[in-house]
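Quick start: what a row looks like.
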Amino acid sequence: MRIKSKRLKDNFIPLKAKTFEVALSNFILNETPHLGGPIMVSKFVEEVKKIIQRFYPPASHLKSGQMLWFAVAIDETHHFGKKMQDTRIVPVILPITTKEDIDKYSQGIKQKGVLKEAITRVLKSAYSQGGVLAQVDISVLFHIGIATAQRLIKEYEKEHSCILPYRGTVQDVGSSVTHKALICKKALLEGKTTPDIARETYHHPTAVDAYLLDFA
């Protein structure tokens, strides 16, 4: 009886090897044996699984109007000539369209106004998830020209006397204005402290202090 039971279990053992982990482990061991033995490969596979889970979340995690996008990590450093493939990115879920957008359209609010709010919402959402978008991201996400994206962002910032968190402002990338004037205004005219200014302008406190020192 005991032998029969063991044979029965043995019949099902091969099924346990029909997994993604085993397939990936075999691929690594066969194609890149220099990475190490089974223990090292097993740890490598676990890290790959974590990356897949982050960058390819189940569709059930997305609500109506949301979409998955890849943003540059907020704390990623930038220097001239650095390529995107050498830049750390993070997955973010963006609220492209919301019920509030539909309500505004039904109330007769013009598309330009709704679009400004949507762009602002998306930029802030990405930032809250640890990523920053470039103006070209906005261009593609909302199917508008880059010049239009730049203009709408600048108009919103001027209308609300604020700075939106996109790569140009957070990481001083590209031809975007660094917003030194607004930072100095908040410090000198409004009497705000460095931490408050940093939070409101999406800049690191060190960068805020550097701008104020340059002005002085």
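That is the whole record. The chain is about 60% helix and 10% strand. The first strand starts at residue 66 and ends at 73.
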